[in-house]
Specification:
By secondary structure, this protein is α+β, with helices and mostly antiparallel strands. The protein has 14 helices and 23 strands. It has two domains: 2-16 and 228-415, UDP-n-acetylglucosamine1-carboxyvinyl-transferase, Chain (Alpha-beta prism), CATH 3.65.10.10; 20-215, Alpha-beta prism (UDP-n-acetylglucosamine1-carboxyvinyl-transferase, Chain). It has a four-stranded mixed sheet with strand order 21-22-1-23. A four-stranded mixed sheet has the order 2-14-16-15, covered by helices on one side. Strand 21, helix 12 and strand 22 (387-390) form a beta-alpha-beta unit. Helix 1 packs parallel to helix 2 (45-56), helix 5 (121-129) runs parallel beside helix 6 (160-170) and helix 10 (306-313) runs parallel beside helix 12 (370-382). Bound molecules: uridine-diphosphate-2(N-acetylglucosaminyl) butyric acid.
């Protein structure tokens, strides 16, 4: 449980960590290679879980501070930790590299945060198109076969990890692969960059197509840096606007990835300034106004920032309208805001109204998923009285040293049993 005490006002600066959703596919794609060193890897729950899984596959792992060294020379399928694979969604990213190496793989259906249906049909359809056949049982997915040569047109319906899986699956396949309706989030671009630097021939286009010309081999040993986390950065934008003394400086703010989000912040009345060198200064902002917003695929407003933005809207004058098009359970966390005397109204699984401004009161609330959990931290920072947050493991899955970072800004936040 987290305890947050009222009335500390934040100031100064925060450093954004490496991106969870970039590091996970990079680790998975590394299994195509022999030895990889990744820098700027966040020390968070989902990364530790994925590392446990690849260790169970015989990969030697050295994770010191934020540098991760992986040696794949003894990789095998025999000791696979299936229980852990069921728990994290990112385990699906292992499908392509393991298939490439072993020609057949059987993995459990992946789990993940409690945010709505998480189908994997786009992953499987794409892999079938290039030569693998699949047999699913209730609990696991079995794929096997031989990569076909030749040109292929695939389509992934903007699904993020499916795009990543299909990029990894086609890099070494002879022929031209065109992935249509591809996700082009900054973490997808980071994976493309990683593979290109090893010799893969991939072009990512802003019309949401990705072209891959298969190469015979890629560099087996490589070193690369994970991009910073634009979602963590957006989280601190809201925190700075609502809870800073005067302002906070966000270093490695990933400003270029946050265009839609910052546009909406501006519409609400958040004041910020680009200080150069990817540093964003966010001022404590008052007289906020209600807005309408809709989550979308990149470069639209990210679903992963919807919950923290709802906390911002709870302080805005008027009635805001939120449309969450991606995940049907992701607005459910608003019941926790209600416990803190906020006034949200859930209209249907994809739409909510938020009435503001409201004076939030400390309460015991739960993290519904990792983003909703961090939203409750921000709510706790602006509430009167103490806030207790349960299920903090969710938050720790995705935010590196969140207690340390917020604590350094001057707030009283502690982890209790
Ligand atoms: N979808 C399908 N079929 C598929 C895959 C997805 O219909 O085969 C649908 C889903 O039902 C959903 C939408 O497409 O409505 C988005 O799902 P997507 O596959 O894009 O999500 P994901 O790849 O499982 C990644 C991030 C999520 C983030 C979403 C959307 C990683 C490891 N996870 O998930 O991150 O919310 O993209 O941007 O990259 C988080 O970090 O908190 C998180 C949940």
């Amino acid at each position: 449980m987290l305890k947050i005490t009222w009335d500390q006002r934040l100031s100064w600066a925060v450093e954004i960590s490496g991106s969870k959703n970039a590091a996970l596919p990079l680790i998975a794609a590394s299994l195509l290679l022999e030895k990889v060193t990744l820098h700027n890897v966040p020390r968070i729950g989902d990364i530790f879980s994925l590392l446990e899984i690849i260790k169970s596959l015989g990969v030697t792992v050295d994770f010191t501070e934020n540098t991760l060294v992986m040696d794949m020379s003894k990789i095998s399928l025999t000791g696979m930790n299936r229980e852990l694979m069921k728990k994290i969604r990112a385990s699906i990213l292992l499908l392509s590299p393991l298939l490439y190496r072993f020609g057949a793989v059987d993995i459990p259906f992946p789990g993940g945060c409690n945010i709505g249906k998480r189908p994997i049909d786009e992953h499987l359809n794409g892999l079938r198109e290039i030569g693998y056949s699949s047999m699913d049982s209730d609990e696991s997915i079995h794929l096997s076969g031989k990569l076909q040569e030749g040109d292929k047109n695939l389509s992934v319906g903007f699904a993020v990890t499916a795009t990543e899986n299909l990029i990894t699956a086609n890099v070494l396949r002879s022929g031209h692969t065109q992935i249509h309706l591809a996700a082009i989030e900054p973490h997808v671009a980071n994976l493309v960059d990683f593979l290109r630097k090893q010799g893969a021939n991939i072009t990512i286009n802003y019309d949401h197509t990705i072209d891959i010309i298969g190469v015979e081999k890629i560099n087996p040993v490589w070193e690369f840096s994970v991009v910073h986390d634009y979602i963590e950065s957006g989280t601190f934008v809201v925190l700075g606007a609502l809870a800073s003394q005067e302002y906070i400086d966000i270093h490695h703010a990933c400003i270029s990835g946050l265009t839609s989000f910052l546009g909406k912040c501006q519409e609400v009345g958040v004041r910020f300034e680009d200080r150069g060198n990817d540093t964003l200064r966010v001022f404590r902002s008052e007289h906020l106004k209600a807005v309408k917003f809709q989550t979308n695929i990149f470069p639209g407003f990210p679903t992963d920032l919807q919950s923290v933005f709802c906390i911002l809207l709870s302080q805005a004058e008027g009635v805001s309208r939120v449309q969450e098009i991606m995940f049907e359970w992701r607005l459910n966390f608003l019941v926790e805001l209600e416990k803190m005397k906020g006034h949200p109204a859930l209209m249907n699984p994809h739409e909510a109204l938020i009435f503001g401004p409201t004076h939030l009161r400390g309460a015991t609330v739960s993290s519904w998923d990792l983003r909703a959990g961090v939203a409750m931290i921000i709510a706790g920072l602006i509430a009167t009285g103490d806030t207790f947050i349960t299920n903090v493991e969710y938050i720790e899955r995705g935010y590196e040293d969140i207690i340390g970072k917020i604590g350094k800004l001057g707030v009283q936040i502690e982890r209790t049993e």
